[in-house]
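Researcher: Structure for this, please.
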Amino acid sequence: VDTYLIALNTLRFSVLALNTQLPLSARAGAHFAHRPCYAAPPPRSPFHVTAMASLSDQDAGGPTTNAEDQAEAQALQEAGQANAAADADTEGEGGESSASAALDAFSAVLISENDTYKYVLIKAKDPATNAYKFLVRGKSGADYHKDAARPTLNELSERALTYTVLGGGRIQHDSAAQAILIYGFSYGFPWEGAPRHDISAALVKEQYPDFEVTTSDEGY
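Model: Predicted structure, C-alpha cell format:
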C-alpha cells in the first residue's frame, strides 16, 4: 500500500510540474473553449448609434432645468398651440410640398458649429395654405432649450404662423472630424413618444452632406 501511495503522489506532482511549464494561453484554452461566441447585433437605422461612450466624455455644461425654465417653455408651447387651435378650421390639407412663401423665409436648419449645445425641433405651419415645415434650431451658449427656440418662435408668431415644438436634445458638431451627433432630450420641450432625432438628422444631413450625421436617444 505504501508503495502504491508513493507512486500515486509521484505521478500527481509530475502532472503539476508539466502544467506549470505550459504557456498561459495553452492552459487557459481548455478553460474558455466551452464559452459560446455571440454574433454582433443587427444594424440600426442609417442615423442611429448608441453613443454613450463618446457622450460620457462630454461636458454638457450649463444649467439643466428649473421651475422657471419649464414654465417659460410651456408658455411658448401654448402660444403656438393656441394659434394653431384658432386656425383649426382652415380648409385644405397642405403639407411640406404645399406652396408657402412665409415658410420659405425660414431656413430648415440653423445650428452653431464646433460645439455641443441644446437644440429643438419645431413644426411650423402656414394657416393660409396648411403647409408645414420642420425647423432645427440649435445655439451655442443657450442655457435652456427655450433660449434656442425663442427667436424662431417669436418670428413665427410675428408672421402669423403657428408652431409646435416637437422636442429637443443636444447637438455635438465637429467640423474637423466632419461629424454631427444629435442626441438626448429636453425637460422644457419633452418628446411625445419616441424622440424624433431622425427628422432632425435628415434635415441636418441636407445642410451638411459631407458630414457623418448620427443620432442617439441616450444622454442629456
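Researcher: Any notable elements?
Model: Strands lie at 109-110, 115-126, 131-138, 162-174, 179-183, 212-216. The chain has a mean pLDDT of 76.
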